[in-house]
Amino acid sequence: TNIAVFASGTGSNFDAIIDAIENGILDARVRLLVCDRIGAPVIEKAQNHEIDTVVYRPKSFENKAAYETAVLEDCKQRDVDFIVLAGYMRLIGPTLLKPYERRIVNIHPSLLPAFPGKDAIGQALAQKVKVTGVTVHYVDDGMDTGPIIAQEAIKIEKNATAEDVKQSIQAVEHRLYPEVIQSLFIKEESL
Ligand code: GRF
């Protein structure tokens, strides 16, 4: 399966996906990184693996549809059939959702529907919850609202800092995301 990863930031999940492919856990090829933030660390990670990268400044487009049309063209050129969001800080609009219906997934650092949006870990700590976790879901036009595919919980220990929780969450994310993506591919094959 040809995938595109969309990311805006650090790219630790991007790296985890590449590692999983190299280790035979995920049967996919990353054909493209789409990044919407100039200078994001994930760009260098893609270059280290010689993965095609497009970096956009969405603001320099006339509107969201024009930006997404450019991205769609990049994906089509490389026969991308599945899109993986990994820290992509932007809502997906109809220009991409229609052609990739049920073929775009996202990972979010909370047990959705709790704590959608930005800083899910900070939100969880502010609410003093004792359990949070990771959700992988299909993407729709809302903010972290699409149908849930998989979830895994982690405990928040007493006195845990945001950094502690982030470490536990990311350890789960890096294992869970490639596994779940692979399970979707297998499901699709058997249809
Ligand atoms: C992850 O925690 C993911 O759940 C959220 O954004 C973060 C991205 O981290 N959507 P990274 O860029 O993959 O390191």
UniProtKB/TrEMBL annotation:
Binding site for (6R)-10-formyltetrahydrofolate: 64, 89-92, 106
Keywords recorded for this protein, A-Z: Purine biosynthesis, Transferase
Domain Formyl transferase N-terminal positions: 2-181
Site (Raises pKa of active site His): 144
One biological process term in Gene Ontology: 'de novo' IMP biosynthetic process
Ligand binding (N(1)-(5-phospho-beta-D-ribosyl)glycinamide): 11-13
Major enzyme class: transferase
Catalytic residues as annotated in Swiss-Prot or TrEMBL: 108 (proton donor)
EC number per UniProt: 2.1.2.2
Pfam families named among the record's database cross-references: Formyl_trans_N
GO cellular component: a single term: cytosol
Biological or metabolic pathway of the protein: Purine metabolism; IMP biosynthesis via de novo pathway; N(2)-formyl-N(1)-(5-phospho-D-ribosyl)glycinamide from N(1)-(5-phospho-D-ribosyl)glycinamide (10-formyl THF route): step 1/1
Source superkingdom: Bacteria
Record bears the keyword Metal-binding: no
PROSITE patterns: GART (PS00373)
GO molecular function: phosphoribosylglycinamide formyltransferase activity
Keyword Metal-binding: no
Cross-referenced PANTHER family: PHOSPHORIBOSYLGLYCINAMIDE FORMYLTRANSFERASE
NCBIfam families named among the record's database cross-references: PurN
Protein's job: Catalyzes the transfer of a formyl group from 10-formyltetrahydrofolate to 5-phospho-ribosyl-glycinamide (GAR), producing 5-phospho-ribosyl-N-formylglycinamide (FGAR) and tetrahydrofolate.
Protein name as it appears in the record: Phosphoribosylglycinamide formyltransferase
The organism of origin for this protein: Halobacillus dabanensis
Lineage, highest ranks first: Bacteria, Bacillati, Bacillota, Bacilli, Bacillales
